Each structure stands twice: as structure tokens, then as C-alpha cells.
What does this fold into?
Amino acid sequence: MNSIRNLLTQAEVRRLCALDGWHRALEDIALRMESPDAYHEELLRQSDEMDRQGIVSWEEWRDLRIEADQAYLRAVAGEDYH
It folds into this structure.
């Protein structure tokens, strides 16, 4: 990772880390199963924070929120239990 890190700007590294954190939250099966509402709120919180900090564009922010909403609907439908 250090060799790649040297090729990226500080802003690019920050963006990759933020998006990685969002995707890790998206894949948090334990939270998704235990509390779909908290799971959804965390995804939205991270999306909004990336938007607030200018890490993602408006279109990327919108896409993250849509993906969070879809994941929430799958969670409340019990997809993890099938």
C-alpha cells in the first residue's frame, strides 16, 4: 500500500479511506441484522459527512444514499436470514 500511497495525493488517499469506511459499514452484517435502523443511519451519516467535507460529488453522494436505502430495504425484508 505504501508504494501506491506515494502515487496518490493526500486528497485521493482521504477519499479512498472514506469510501472504504463506507463500504465496510455497508458490509457490516452484524449491525445490519441486529439493528437495520442504526445500520441505515450510519451509512447515511457517513455519506453526509463525505459530502460535507467535499470528498464526494453531489452525484456520488446521491448514489451512496440510494445504495444505503436499498441495503436498508433488503435488511428489513430479512435478506440476511434466507
Q: What stands out?
A: The CA atoms of residues 47 and 61 lie 6 Å apart. Residues 2-81 form one domain. The helical segments are 2-5, 10-26, 29-34, 36-52, 58-76. The longest helix spans residues 58-76.
